[in-house]
Amino acid sequence: MFYLSGLLIAVCSILFSIVHLRQSASNYFDPVGLAVVIGGTFAVSVMILPWEMHVEIRDALKRLFGNRKLDLKAVNLECFELIRKVQTGNTEFKAVSPSIVGQTLTDGSELIGLGFSAEKIHHILEERIFQWAERKQKVANSIRSLAKYPPAFGLVGTVLGLVSLMRAISDGASSSEAGFRMAVALVATLYGLLTANLVLNPAGENVLRSSTEERKAAEIALEAVILACEGVNLLEAQETLNSHVSPADRINILGNISTETEGDAAA
User: How many domains does the chain have?
Assistant: First the structure.
């Protein structure tokens, strides 16, 4: 959602600049340059993006254009619920958290039910989180590396425009027509710069940041699984989970329970 908001702000800024310069928006439209930049960038994306990771690419686009904000407090609550269930002898836990967080909690509960040691569970889940992060990072780096190409394709469009300009001059084009053709040729370079620095580079950075946040949440889930396996008391589990997040995302389940109990006693 922030990505789309940023694009909207950028478009408004560009439109304001065009109006301030007393130019017509049609002066900045060049179908040849647009075709070269967009077509060339799409062609390179077919070549270099890891399409075998289509699930990760689709999830990255959902995070990019959606409003999926990671709620660490909700993650902590679900982690605490896993620990509480395991302490009652119930290892059948189905997480509702998305992506790697829920998968870590679900897999952890299964491994606990199978009788794996805490050390072995930690090793297995840590490796799964690492492999997930590697795939996410590969997608993000591919998108960021794609940003190298639009400026080059913009220059290609500009060269094509200049070739057309030179031919027009040789055919006796007027100075006003020559100036117009020159301006149109330069628009292709503008397209390339905007595509790289306004669309692709921020998209790659956004995907990388999202995957980093999810990995942090997955490590909290891993910590919860180990706490559940070791059978630590609920108070220790709660405070350990809280140590991984900001004060605003901390939970106080046991404090709420104590308050409710005292209120019932007083009544």
Answer: 1
